[in-house]
């Protein structure tokens, strides 16, 4: 399963959604059980239903089977496991935790003929087309068409999905069983949640079982009025309400509950709606509706409380949380995370870890979590754990490590130097470098610093090409990939995968330092996401006279933290602001949820009245010139 990282900017929790459920789309879905299923069918089908006149209704627009080629090439790409690979995401070849056994280039690797696994991909009907006699719009419905390896698609044939008995695997020429990613075909395991069927079934890997289940629930809903008239299919019971036999309903429900909705499914659902056929899979948008429709006895049992919550690995802006999983009579779906007793976010998955990012430096945070099950029942709170973020320089605004020297010399003489003038040693575990070659509009594979690597204050870290021969005694690490640059390639320094410093112009192939050595000027004190050649001194090719050290001349009077202070803290009524240089200071105070509760600009030292603030924990920011400091403020 994928780890989710939640971004909280200044404790103001926001969400940027580029494509989402249209407002009012599900307003008609007010029922329960099979009545809810029928309401959803009317919302997502191709009929203009007059009874939905008080809500938004978007009609399913069949685009035809051949249109799926372009959709797959554009929207079924692997941006989740091999980010930026521009290859097809095939659930039958994807290895979620390692290297895929093979990959496919969109369009050019589409079948075609195949003889073995890895030859090409084609379009698979997750519900076999023979079930509905190749009729439209089922045959071209994007929600049930996935790109899959041609040979594995043929191996799966028209078999139902189920739980394979490993002692009864099916043997077939030209393919291994299990397949290269672990999918398999064999007799159904007639026990446990899959009891009641002994025929041959196909079983995908755990990562995609929920995906398959939600496709079946969509199909049973979208074509509710037709399914009972179709050809016999072992997964179906001949009805148009329940649709599935007891055995296969048990399998699909278990897969749905154990494998929650993924970002891949969310993105695909949005792309089908906005960029293709204008309808949605409601069980991706509202996974709780699966149990509301098909589980006749509603689950009211709450999960057990999470235990052993631990906060660890603090940085200036992040804290890791880990805990022991809750248990539930059906399945735990996700966890709610609370910061200082206020709800912060839901993890969206049953993983027992998360990283809270974007926190303020040098600030103490206390955390608790609650579990939610697939019926939205909520547990009690876990134990509380507290941790303080570090202060490695980011409290000074954008003070951080930065590129200090760049050598683009002859042959393999390629060197990068990064300097630290934050005031304290910096652990490099949260930093990466990325290369964008020849004006490419995307970043390449990240370079990660060696495990445990740090830069002491006023020191540097140097990465060189393995074939470099200039000043070799100064190198801290060798990496040929990140140092494969030429004078027109952009190089980015990232912190928590956010760009903080850059060499060259991203998305431009213009030369800025060909056969040149660049050394950052000593007046530069922080990184910047916009490259400015005036910040650099330029020298000839292969010049490494300054490599291994970096000089910085700082005007400390420019820092607000040296010129502005406040007391007392905790404060009861009045807070005194002391300004040493008589330059205006903007004072902002935010509550723990990020809401601004005080805003005032003063030019002279004095007191501000905080009688109106309730007792509690706040964040105060003081801004002078271009510098800002943020501190925790306690109102007693």
UniProtKB/TrEMBL annotation:
Transmembrane segments: none annotated. The keyword Cell membrane does not apply. Residues 387-554 form the LTD domain. InterPro entries: Endonuclease-I, FN3_dom, FN3_sf, His-Me_finger_sf, Ig-like_fold, Lamin_tail_dom, Lamin_tail_dom_sf, Secre_tail. Residues 302-393 form the Fibronectin type-III domain. Keywords: Endonuclease, Hydrolase, Nuclease, Signal. CDD domains: FN3 (cd00063). One of its GO terms (molecular function) is endonuclease activity. The keyword Nuclease applies. Signal peptide: none annotated. SMART domains: FN3. SUPFAM superfamilies: Fibronectin type III, His-Me finger endonucleases, Lamin A/C globular tail domain. Belongs to the EndA/NucM nuclease family. This is Endonuclease. It comes from Winogradskyella aquimaris.
């Amino acid at each position: 399963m994928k780890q989710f990282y939640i971004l909280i900017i200044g404790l103001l929790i926001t969400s940027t959604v580029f494509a989402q459920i249209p407002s009012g789309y599900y307003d008609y879905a007010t029922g329960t059980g099979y009545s809810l299923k029928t309401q959803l069918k009317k919302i997502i089908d191709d009929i203009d239903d007059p009874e939905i006149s008080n809500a938004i209704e978007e009609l399913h627009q069949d685009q035809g089977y051949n249109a799926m080629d372009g959709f797959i090439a554009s929207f079924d790409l692997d941006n989740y496991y091999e980010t930026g690979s521009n290859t097809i995401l095939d659930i039958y070849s994807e290895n979620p935790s390692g290297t895929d056994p093979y990959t496919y280039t969109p369009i050019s690797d589409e079948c075609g003929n195949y003889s073995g696994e890895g030859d090409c991909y084609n379009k698979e009907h997750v519900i076999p087309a023979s079930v509905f006699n190749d009729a439209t719009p089922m045959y071209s419905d994007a929600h049930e068409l996935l790109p899959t390896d041609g040979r594995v698609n043929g191996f799966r044939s028209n078999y139902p999905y189920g739980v394979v008995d490993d002692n009864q695997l099916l043997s077939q020429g030209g393919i291994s069983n299990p397949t290269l990613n672990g999918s398999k075909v064999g007799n159904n395991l007639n026990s446990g949640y899959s009891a009641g069927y002994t025929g041959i079934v196909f079983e995908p890997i755990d990562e995609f079982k929920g995906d398959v289940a939600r496709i079946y629930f969509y199909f049973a809903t979208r074509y509710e009025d037709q399914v009972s008239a179709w050809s016999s299919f072992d997964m179906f019971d001949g009805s148009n309400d329940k649709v599935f036999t007891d055995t296969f309903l048990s399998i699909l429900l278990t897969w749905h509950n154990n494998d929650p909705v993924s970002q891949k499914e969310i993105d695909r659902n949005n792309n089908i709606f906005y960029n293709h056929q204008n309808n949605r899979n409601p069980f991706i948008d509202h996974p709780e509706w699966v149990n509301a429709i098909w589980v006749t006895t509603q689950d009211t049992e709450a999960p057990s409380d999470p235990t052993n919550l631990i906060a660890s690995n603090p940085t200036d802006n992040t804290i890791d949380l880990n805990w022991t999983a809750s248990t539930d009579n059906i399945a735990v779906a996700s966890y709610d995370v609370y910061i200082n007793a206020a709800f912060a976010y839901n993890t969206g998955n049953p993983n027992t870890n998360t990283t809270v990012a974007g926190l303020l430096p040098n600030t103490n945070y206390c955390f608790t979590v609650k579990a939610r099950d697939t019926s939205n029942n909520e547990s009690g709170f876990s134990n509380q754990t507290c941790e303080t973020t570090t202060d490695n320089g980011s409290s000074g605004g954008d003070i951080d490590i930065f590129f200090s020297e760049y050598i683009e010399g002859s042959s393999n003489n390629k060197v990068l130097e990064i300097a630290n003038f934050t005031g304290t040693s910096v652990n490099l575990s949260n930093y990466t470098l990325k290369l964008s070659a020849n004006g490419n509009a995307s970043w390449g594979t990240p370079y990660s610093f060696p495990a445990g690597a740090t830069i002491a204050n006023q020191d540097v870290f140097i990465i060189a090409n393995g074939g470099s021969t200039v000043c070799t005694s100064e190198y801290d690490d060798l990496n040929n990939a990140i140092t494969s640059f030429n004078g027109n390639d952009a190089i980015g320094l990232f912190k928590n995968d956010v760009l903080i410093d850059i060499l060259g112009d991203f998305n431009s192939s213009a030369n800025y330092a060909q056969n040149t050595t660049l050394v950052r000027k000593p007046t530069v004190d922080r990184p910047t996401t916009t490259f400015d050649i005036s910040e650099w001194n330029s020298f000839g090719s292969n010049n490494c006279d300054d490599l291994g050290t970096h000089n910085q001349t700082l005007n400390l009077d420019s820092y607000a933290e040296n010129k502005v202070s406040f007391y007392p803290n905790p404060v009861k009524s009045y807070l005194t602001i002391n300004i040493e240089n008589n330059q205006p200071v903007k004072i902002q105070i935010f509550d723990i949820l990020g809401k601004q509760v005080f805003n005032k600009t003063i030019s002279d030292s004095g007191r501000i009245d905080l009688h109106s603030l309730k007792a509690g924990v706040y964040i105060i920011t003081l801004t002078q010139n271009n510098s800002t400091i943020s501190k925790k403020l306690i109102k007693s």
